[in-house]
Amino acid sequence: MSFAAIGTFMATYGAAIGATAAVAGAGVATYSAYEQGQSAKSAADANANAQRKTAISQENVGAQQAADAQLKAKRTAAAGVAAAGAGGIDPNTGTPLTLSGQTSEFGELDSLRIINNASRTAWGYQSQAGIDEFQGNQARPAGNTNAGATLLGGTSSAAFGAANSGAWGSGGGGTINGEFH
Fold first, then answer.
1. What pLDDT is stored for residue 148 in this prediction?
2. Is the pLDDT of residue 20 over 90?
3. DSSP state string for 11-46
4. Which one of 76, 83, 128, 157 is at 20 to 30 Å from 40 when CA atoms are compared?
5. For 117-144, how does the pLDDT look when each residue is reduced to its tens digit (9 = 90+)?
């Protein structure tokens, strides 16, 4: 076998090996793109779940703080009634009655503010959970699209390279003076 024959043999099979390696590389990149989409979806779902749990926790904390505010107001009002009674003043008339009523009203107002603030905070977490879920729902098909594009691009590059190298026979493309044939 002459050196020219060996060179032709090596060029032909070398191109085939190169094309095979390119297709294998495209397969690995395709799988990676697919898995990236799946991972992004899983991460977004986990984030959304955490946001929802935090929202529930905020509402529970707000409810407890509101109950504490009402209890504090009742204690304050009761202490005022007791102080008025101990001082010989009728707590059911005049200023002691007014102060007791106002203390109860302010306690209720504080309780409602606490609940409102907790509800707003929880709403923010719920909204973020919805955004995270949407992003996850978009990530999965984007990963699939990227995987398809990677596979198509990699295999077409391998095929083009093999055709230009003459691996598929002597009529297989290439360039002469910069023009494709």
1. 79
2. no
3. HHHHHHHHHHHHHHHHHHHHHHHHHHHHHHHHHHHH
4. 157
5. 999 999 999 999 999 999 888 888 888 8
For the CA atoms of the chain, what is the radius of gyration?
38
Query: Kindly report the CA angle at 126 between 120 and 131, in degrees rounded to 5?
Result: 125
Query: Distance (Å, rounded) from C-alpha 52 to C-alpha 59?
Result: 11
Alpha-carbon span 85 to 142, nearest angstrom: 74
Residues 6+ apart with CB under 8 A from 19: 158, 159, 161, 162, 167
Q: Are strands 179-180 and 175-176 parallel, antiparallel or unpaired?
A: antiparallel
Residue 47: which residues within 8 A CB-CB, separation 6 or more?
129, 132
Q: Provide φ and ψ at 95, rounded to 5°.
A: -60, -45
Place of tokens 């503010």: 113
